[in-house]
Amino acid sequence: MISIIALAVIVALLFAASAVWTDVLWYRQVGFLNVLTTQWFAGGLMGLIGFVLLAGPLWVSVWFAFRSRPTYVRVNATLDQYQQVLEPLRKGITWGIPILFGLFGALYFASRWTTAALWINGGTTGETDPQFGLDTGFYLFQLPFYQQLVGYLLFSVLLSGIVFVAISYLYGSIRIENRRLRVAKGTRVQLAVTIAVYVALHAVRLWLERYQQLTDPQGLFTGAGYSGVNAQIPGRTILVAVAVLVALGFVFAAVTGRWRIPVVGAAVLVATSLLIGVAYPWGVQTFVVKPSERSLEAEYLQRNINATREAYGIDKVNVQPYNAVTDAKAGALRSDVDTTASIRLLDPDLVSDTFRQLQQYKQYYQFGSKLDVDRYKIDGQSVDTVLSVRELSQQPSDSWYNNSIVYTHGYGVVAAYGNQVTSDGKPIFFEGGIPTSGDLGSFEPRIYFGEKSPAYSIVGAPEGESPRELDYPSGSSANPDEGEQNESNQTYTTFSGDGGPKLDNALTRLLYSMKFGSIEILTSNAVSNSSQILYDRSPIDRVQKVAPYLTLDQDPYPAVVDGRVQWVVDGYTTSDQYPYSQQQSYRQAINDGASSAARPATDTINYMRNSIKATVDAYDGSVTLYAWDQEDPVLQAWQKVFPNTVKSADEMSSALLSHVRYPTDMFKAQRNVLGTYHVTDAGSFYSREDAWQVPADPQSGSDTSTKQPPYYLSMRLPGQTDTAFSLYSTFIPIQQSSGGSRNVLRGYLAANGDGEGADGKRSEDYGKLTLLRLPGETNVPGPGQVQNLFDSDNTVSTQLNLLRQGQTTVSSGNLLTLPVGGGLLYVQPVYVRSTGETSYPLLRKILVSFGDKVAFEDTLDKALDDIFGGDSGAIVGQNGPGQAGPSSDGQSAAPTDNGQSTDGGTSSSSNPAVAQALKDAKTALDAREQARVSGDWAAFGTADKQLQDALQRAISAQQ
What we know:
Layout: H1 2-30, H2 33-67, H3 77-86, H4 90-110, H5 113-121, H6 136-170, E1 174-177, E2 180-183, H7 185-212, E3 217-218, E4 221-222, H8 226-256, H9 260-289, H10 293-296, H11 298-311, E5 318-321, H12 337-340, H13 352-359, E6 365-366, E7 372-378, E8 381-389, E9 391-392, H14 400-406, E10 410-411, E11 413-421, E12 427-432, E13 437-438, E14 446-447, E15 456-459, E16 469-473, E17 490-493, H15 506-516, H16 520-523, E18 532-535, H17 539-546, E19 551-552, E20 557-561, E21 564-575, E22 584-585, H18 586-590, E23 604-605, E24 607-617, E25 623-627, H19 633-641, E26 647-648, H20 654-657, H21 664-677, H22 682-687, E27 692-693, E28 711-715, E29 724-733, E30 747-752, E31 769-773, H23 783-792, H24 794-804, E32 808-812, E33 816-818, E34 825-834, E35 842-850, E36 853-857, H25 860-867, H26 912-934, H27 937-958
């Protein structure tokens, strides 16, 4: 039995050692070993302090309880039995109980090391609270630590007192004789001192609660209101004085043995707490504040408004009146050609399957279900793009060698114009293919680190050894319909970077075998001294490990920067302790129609800054942190905790700055607050007469609880001279308690996301928030009303029903809102998809609305002209169905050396079946257009079915 236990202990220690040492190897390799050691040291030191603060008082209580026990007192038979059991264990109990509870306390206190770190390293902010005049740094850095420490000490003293009383009772130091409580003199002294310390600590807690009034929700808002300032805070001050007197009374009892005064004092403290701490504030709130709430709370509500706007960074929002018109006049868009030319028709949430069918090539590649939006300079012009990296998709396999040694990485970037499609509704790719080619120039295309990377891969090989990591398909095998792959039709490579710990000795291999539960890491001949093991490969995971204090944006995105694919990750510093700032649920704020399934650890916040821009190299996994908001006091504190881990934003290259975006989750948190806090007057704020909310996502159907996500667009806002890559959202009036909400537009919020200025350095305009405020008497339809207009329009519904006939489904893309033409223009792409495993969405129609007018056409240009009197004056980027345009492989996507076009299909000129199918499709398309013009919907349906059949034959022939 002993040998089994010993073996189990050894195995447990080995697994613990593998976790510890592999962490050391990982952090050392990535260059952030001091982050790990600092966490260990801080956690260990806090654990030691926690152990001493809990085990120390407990040991004193147990030791004194045993020492002061009367040896001559006989209590009763039952307690005598307990004494007989405890007496042989007395020494073990004296040490065992404190150590046991101390270990639990150590674990708890160690997990709170971040609070202590901020207390030590936090500074001032230069802003003071309006009640006590203290710097807000006191609330962000010092108050949380004081509250944690006092709360822990209170628990320690209370537990020590309970244990002391229990042992004293068992040994007769505390007993009941003739219905009277008898306490031995030494026990009485110890008990009085323990109670005095507890009450004194309670007084300190009451004193800290005065400040906590400014950070706790108080009914209408966060922070102390009228009753808080005039009842709660003064009441706490009085209770502090009473508690101090009671503590002194127990000290007096310890010295004199007279308990009447402290006992009466304790009763007075309890009664006073109920009267002054509970009843009086309730009475003030109920009988004084409620009848005159608007006037009495105005001063404190104004404090809340000012603090909230400052804490969320919305105090400098540029509010512009926007008297939006609803009449569509000819030529109205002529002055907005920069915006209309960038209208994004590709919906990144819908076209993933299109990318997959046209650019995936092999089953061991994949694209994310949601693609990313960025912008690139093509021929000197900034172009909005929809893009994704081609990541590895490991198929279920019993072969450890294939999963860990052969299939190690994805390959290439696929990027398409956001505002253009081909004549048959496909994306126009300006970068893609295998090997990758296009307008992004030469860059390292291999994706070893990504959102879909395997748990681990083993890469690298001795010099001169043949490559064994599958790089990409080549030759005829690049066609996914060619059948089984073979060695001659694959290109292999060897990882040459520094991306993971080296497996250069047997011990390291053993530890990683234990970590991943794979004996092959230890025994396989494929693992050599030159091998590296890559793991923790998700960009979010890597940044979170090297910067554990950050709340990370849930939408990292790839960018081709200086010849490398870099994942860009936005990091936030947050707090829920900013005085008077309104608290909100971060998880609820960022939850909308485009949210990921991941749940961030952070929830309640009332302060937020986009303090860090991080990059993760997709080839070698290297992580770089840039201090984007160098004035953020929370970041400054963490830079002291983890010195030399964050670079200045001035070190960011112009190429990287050109791909910086305004972060999505930050924007969501800000818009959630701004819906109410755009009102800066306390009286108007109280009445909520102009409160807004984010509209429901039209794509979510009947689910009105799902908010519409913000969208990235390049646009020139009214009154501005330059086009900027912006993130925008809209507002409608808030839903009233009686139910229902007028779905009319009230506000349009846009954030400038252009990080690069004209001089190649950081742009001063980045992050500027502009709020277009529509007059209350204007009835500009909101997204919900516009979607209803689309759905209820007879012409639109008839044509959509025709498109849905047969084996096709129709999907509505993102409903975009643009402030152009003096009003608000809505644009929604409509995708059609046939059934079958190889089908994918194709852009077939465009819905447009301005005011109460609706257009439903094959192209954006036609739809805009229909709305604006035959000539909108707009310039658009689309080549739609029925128009001449580039092929789906894009202008720069030339065929590869095997004759394959970069959209995944072979050239139609070399495939007679494809050529015939496309010819049939053109004939059917012409027939369908003629039927539409003549209004012959039966013929339209027949031609449409012929068109779908022809397109399906073309797709099948290409594969």
